[in-house]
Specification:
This protein is mainly beta. It has one domain: Immunoglobulin-like. It has no helices and 10 strands. A hairpin with a 2-residue loop joins strand 9 and strand 10. It is elongated and about 80 Å long.
Length: 132
């Protein structure tokens, strides 16, 4: 990983303190991969639908929030739980060489994938060499 994307918060790997509303907020685990076009972030956010993801970019800080809809199975009463429900939030500081207009994201099977393409002027280019 290069210094193009850095984490802005360094909390425990999975959970942050409860909010003033009483709900939990988890810091999703993330993989950061560099590609030829830019950087791809993959964040584990089980239970989050595409409509419940909010991604903002403000002053080079990319903030990702995911809201989980509570599950209440009919006619069942919870006796024991190892998995706590809660929302997700994570922030990353980006370098200046990403194109904010071309950032895109998709959710599939509990994984949010965010593509951060580099700006055209920041793309590496191949220089042709000719024989004289």
């Amino acid at each position: 990983m290069t210094s193009d994307v850095t984490q802005t918060a360094d909390k425990t790997p999975t959970e942050t303190p409860e909010t003033t509303t009483g709900g939990r907020i988890y810091r999703p685990l993330a993989d950061i991969m560099e590609t030829g076009e830019g950087v791809t972030l993959m964040l584990e956010m089980p239970g989050v639908a595409a409509d419940d993801v909010d991604i903002t970019l403000e002053q080079r800080v990319l903030t990702i929030r995911g809201k989980v809809q509570p599950t209440n199975p009919e006619r069942l009463q919870l006796a024991y739980a190892e998995y706590g429900e809660g929302d997700y939030e994570r922030s990353f500081t980006l370098s200046d060489d990403f194109d904010p207009e071309k950032i895109n994201a998709a959710v599939s099977h509990g994984v949010l994938t965010v593509a951060l393409p580099r700006a055209a002027e920041a793309q590496p280019r191949k220089i042709a060499v000719t024989a004289s």
